[in-house]
């Protein structure tokens, strides 16, 4: 009872002191621990707007930091086409576009930027629509004309990215265990990866060929699949087929003729140094042998090969006298050697006696 009374007196003192000072105690307005803190409506609105794909945005470098930004006129047209997003603001849903954007700027959810390069580069007629480098604009006020606004908060990570970060170590371990896979799984993985790589290279080659042909013939820069090499793009934007609009100045006919001559020379060189059928067969055999070695390798074969090599080294280092087979062979060969030596000695003695007899006979004939 004494402790509860003391806490009530402390609360009364805090409230009276806050009223006398003309300010509110921040600890007095905090919600209880069990009640969740309500998120700011403008923060929810900014997250909804940023996650919506209808608002055209790009990535740029702002003071050595990559940021996502949009143009003021695109923000105005977006809110005009999606007025239902203002319902998140509740009491502030009747604000017009300028007041709403200024509120986001005051809450540091947006920052107004300006392009770093403000002069037209040589060979171009106007400034870039989406600059790659930005700087902070001095006046943080919303403007619809030639104004850029970057998001200052970190975008919430979607669920698929979290799952991908979890399964990435598992995928790395699976790649390391590729040598112990069954033969059919190895074939499936090998041909799948080779097919995907061939598809990407073929698509890039076709894209470059179409661009070069149209550039030389009609002088237009037409890129099919314009976002296929983009660093930051969604899967839908990555394979967008529509060509990129040519905003640069048309090249001169001398430049087009020069690139045409270069292309013809490259084609002639490639055709002259192309491998013949025998070289192609050798390359194919070499590559097929490498692929077979990769597919047929296994730890069991590696261990058996090491054991065979070790056994061969041991047999080569052992002396000949220590092997039982060598002793047996020497014992078997010894009697035959002795017999052969005896027969040769007998033949030599017989030939010597014959020579002596012949000599005696000649002497007798001479005496007669």
From TrEMBL:
Write down the Pfam families for this protein, in alphabetical order. Sec62
Q: Where is the composition biased (Acidic residues)?
A: 339-351
- Where along the sequence do coiled-coil regions lie? none
Q: Where is this region: Disordered?
A: 1-36, 315-368
Q: Which GO terms describe its cellular component?
A: endoplasmic reticulum; endoplasmic reticulum membrane; membrane
**Main subcellular location:** endoplasmic reticulum
Per the record, the similarity remark reads:
Belongs to the SEC62 family.
What protein am I looking at?
A: Translocation protein SEC62
Q: Which organism is it from?
A: Juglans regia
């Amino acid at each position: 009872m004494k402790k509860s009374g003391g806490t009530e007196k402390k609360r009364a003192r805090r409230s009276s002191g806050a009223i006398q000072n003309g300010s509110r105690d921040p600890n007095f307005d905090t919600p209880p621990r069990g009640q969740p803190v309500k998120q700011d409506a403008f923060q929810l609105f900014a997250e909804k707007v940023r996650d919506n794909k209808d608002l055209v945005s790009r990535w740029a470098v702002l003071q050595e930091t990559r940021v996502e930004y949009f143009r003021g006129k695109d923000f105005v047209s977006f809110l005009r086409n999606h007025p239902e997003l203002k319902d998140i603001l509740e009491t502030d849903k009747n604000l017009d576009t300028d007041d709403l954007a200024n509120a986001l700027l005051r809450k540091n959810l947006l920052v107004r930027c300006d392009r770093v390069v403000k002069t037209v580069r040589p060979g171009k007629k106007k400034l870039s629509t989406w600059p790659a480098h930005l700087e902070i604009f001095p006046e943080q006020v919303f403007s619809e004309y030639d104004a850029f606004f970057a998001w200052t908060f970190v975008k919430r990570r979607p669920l698929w990215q979290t799952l991908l970060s979890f399964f990435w170590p598992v995928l790395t371990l699976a790649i390391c265990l590729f040598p112990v896979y069954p033969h059919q799984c190895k074939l499936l993985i090998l041909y799948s990866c080779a097919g995907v790589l061939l598809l990407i290279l073929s698509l890039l080659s076709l894209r470059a060929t179409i661009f070069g042909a149209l550039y030389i013939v009609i002088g237009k820069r037409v890129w099919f699949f314009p976002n296929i090499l983009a660093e930051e793009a969604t899967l839908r934007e990555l394979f967008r087929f529509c060509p990129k609009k040519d905003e640069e100045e048309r090249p001169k006919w001398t430049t087009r003729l020069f690139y045409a001559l270069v292309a013809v020379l490259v084609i002639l060189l490639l055709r002259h140094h192309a491998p013949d059928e025998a070289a192609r067969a050798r390359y194919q055999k070499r590559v097929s042998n490498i692929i077979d070695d990769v597919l047929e390798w296994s730890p069991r074969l590696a261990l058996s090969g090491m054991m065979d090599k070790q056994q061969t080294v041991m047999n080569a280092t052992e002396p000949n006298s220590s092997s039982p087979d060598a002793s047996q062979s020497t014992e078997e060969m010894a009697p035959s050697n002795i017999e052969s030596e005896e027969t040769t000695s007998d033949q030599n003695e017989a030939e010597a006696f014959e020579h002596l007899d012949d000599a005696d006979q000649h002497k007798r004939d001479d005496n007669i």
